[in-house]
Amino acid sequence: MNTPKPSAADHSSDGSQPWLHQRGRVIQEFGTVKQFPVALTMETRLYSSQRLNKVLADTRILHDLYKKYHWLMRGATFYQLHLLLDKHAGEQLELVDTIAERVQTLGGVAVGDPRHVAEITSVPRPPDGVEEVPAMLSRLLEAHELILTECHDAAARTQEMGDDGTNDLLVSEVVRTNELQAWFLAEHLVDTPLVRV
């Protein structure tokens, strides 16, 4: 089905009028993979794409939680946590792009719409308002652990299936980034006074 081309009367004489309100047919459904010459079976690429989309959805939510909590930080360590959370958000955003590109490299369709992400993620939704700082940090740690659990399992399975690229991405980038960030956060939740009295 071809989209009808607008007539000359619909455009300005110099051709600079944008074609507004365009709609197209879906040329690849979510949850499918097209054939790419990457030396992996269709079954392997489909499996890896599905697992990566789950990690991608959780990572996008974690990134957004980092941004939200970056804005909402309070208390004596506001400045340090404000900067740390923004740094972590930036690193998560890099992972989002890397994971999505891997899905596309496998011939899949990366989850993109935020509403679709919300349907796929396992990260629990926080309250819309502001929680106490330890609760916000704890929610971030729980999200990290969910992602790490998913990644460890997905990495093992993709290795068994011979998908070295996905395995490497999950272990070398997603797992290592999330472990390091979890360590930084966890150290802010120890019961140590800020100053000695």
UniProtKB/TrEMBL annotation:
This is Dps family protein. It comes from the Bacteria. Residues 51-194 form the Ferritin/DPS domain. Signal peptide: none annotated. PANTHER family: GENERAL STRESS PROTEIN 20U. Belongs to the Dps family. InterPro entries: DPS_DNA-bd (IPR002177), DPS_DNA-bd_CS (IPR023188), Ferritin-like (IPR012347), Ferritin-like_SF (IPR009078), Ferritin_DPS_dom (IPR008331).
